[in-house]
Amino acid sequence: MTEHASLAEHVDVLIVGAGPTGLALGVDLARRGVDALVVERGEGLSPGSRGKGLQPRTMEVFDDLGVLDAILAAGGDYPVGLVWQNGERVAEQNMFDPAETNEDSPYGAPWMVPQWRTQEILRSRLDELDGRVSFGREVTGIAQDADGVTVAFASGAPVRARYAVAADGGRSVIRRALGIGMTGETVDPNPILVADTRITGLDRDNWHIFPPQGDEGFLAICPLAGTADFQVVAQLLDDSAPDLSLDGVRKLVAARSHLAPEDVTEVRWASDFRPRAALADRFQQSRVFLAGDAAHVHSPAGGQGLNTSVQDAYNLGWKLGAVLRGEAPASLLDTYEEERRPNAAEMLGLSTKVHRGEARRGEATRQLGIGYRESSLTEETRAASDGLRAGDRAPNRTIAGVRLLDAFRGPHWTLLALGTAAPAVGNSDSDAVRVVEGPPTEPYGTGLFLVRPDGYVGWAGDTESGLAKYTERFNLGRPTGS
């Protein structure tokens, strides 16, 4: 135990950072009964629209976490892009490849919600679950030992936790304190200004695009769904510090569009950044995990950063819960880096290609195809499986009147028995596994499919042979007859 551990507040999990990543993890842990604390250096949730696009896979995650209705009420579809030149409308363009909403994926297209609103919704859900967020907690140090982690703050007592999660952004204090490197590249040498504004003189049915002209970079003005605001995004072609004031944004918008300076009536929030792609060398060091921007930094093009970050939390949450409840060995936590780091690397590459115009915002950016086929948690025992395989996302279907996304909702595992009898699985006094039985159903086909708490097929088989051994890894009980 560290020197100050006896004076510290004790929790099971300390989450540093109250952005979408930290709040989503807090929600997931709270519904699992884990004593977790989210700490944030700021005095409140961070403002700004930032990551405004929620991909279909993230919508499924939010369905499971119990915030989907609020997310749907707070946002809207992406508008069609409208290209302007010399004050004239010259072309329209879809910002994303067309996507169908179907039974497999009822949330087929990206959904726009300003990041500040997503954070508010997650915070509200965390409050409902009696989770905790503590603001004004600036981390100044971290120490680990065999039993846990102690985190010190600029003011107030330290916190002692069995595990800690760094969700404190691209400049992560925790990552730097641990000495974990971050390897990356500059995606675009030109800085970008982003601001939430109030603007008159533009319709809210289009994403207004002003291509580069002369020595001016591009300007894009997007109506933010569910608000009266427009998000202004502008490429800056020099290295001087951008003017983020109302006058500065007015001058920039007037110089690159047909709008007059006074058409920008308010700047509610503004920031700037340099697009880059970077990946942490490790996602775990002993009892500390990196998640979200602390682990991977994306160009905003394609809307992958926030979504990949939320899915980090979703992957880690059920594993922490299982280990802390004694249902799985601590080695289960090693699969977080094993599964998430390759996926983050893939999404980083995709974001960079979209930014450079080398890839479309299409099927891959929706993140429905992400899976864990190569994971040590994945077991595919069927003789032939040309379609869906263990490790893949479990697609939605309605089986014997049960909608699978409804069946998956909650912190449990789900056993699908399709065209075959369901073995008894799970302890008799536990609701750790829900069973859904029905006829053979595509794309699953016939067989048994054990779906993880995060919605991926962990084990698949033609018969129950081998299922018992798999479930014993998670203390789910032994199926009878195997």
Set out the fold topology:
Layout: E1 9-16, H1 20-31, E2 36-40, E3 53-54, H2 56-65, H3 68-74, E4 76-77, E5 80-85, E6 88-93, E7 111-112, H4 115-128, E8 132-135, E9 139-144, E10 149-153, E11 159-166, H5 173-178, E12 182-186, E13 192-199, E14 206-210, E15 219-223, E16 230-235, H6 246-256, E17 264-273, E18 276-280, E19 284-285, E20 288-290, E21 296-297, H7 305-324, H8 334-355, E22 379-380, E23 398-399, E24 402-403, H9 404-408, E25 413-418, E26 433-438, E27 447-451, E28 457-461, H10 467-472
Parallel strand pairs: 1-2, 1-11, 2-8, 5-14, 11-20, 22-28, 25-26
Antiparallel strand pairs: 3-7, 4-7, 5-6, 9-10, 10-11, 12-18, 13-16, 13-17, 14-15, 15-16, 18-21, 19-20, 23-24, 25-27, 27-28
Helix pairs in contact: 1-4, 1-7, 7-8
Determine Rg (CA atoms, Å): 23 Å
Q: What is the CATH topology classification name of the largest domain?
A: FAD/NAD(P)-binding domain
Any idea what the CATH architecture of the largest domain is?
Answer: 3-Layer(bba) Sandwich
- The total of helices stands at 10
CATH class category name of the largest domain: Alpha Beta
| Shape annotation | globular
How much is the average pLDDT? 91
Structural class label: alpha+beta
Helix content: 10-25%
Instruction: Measure the end-to-end span.
Output: 44 Å
Give a count of the beta strands, DSSP E runs of length 2 or more: 28
Q: Largest sheet, if any?
A: 8 strands, mixed
Low-confidence stretches: 478-482
Total domains, how many?
Answer: 3
Q: Approximately what portion of the residues adopt beta-strand conformation? A: 25-35%
CATH superfamily of the largest domain: FAD/NAD(P)-binding domain
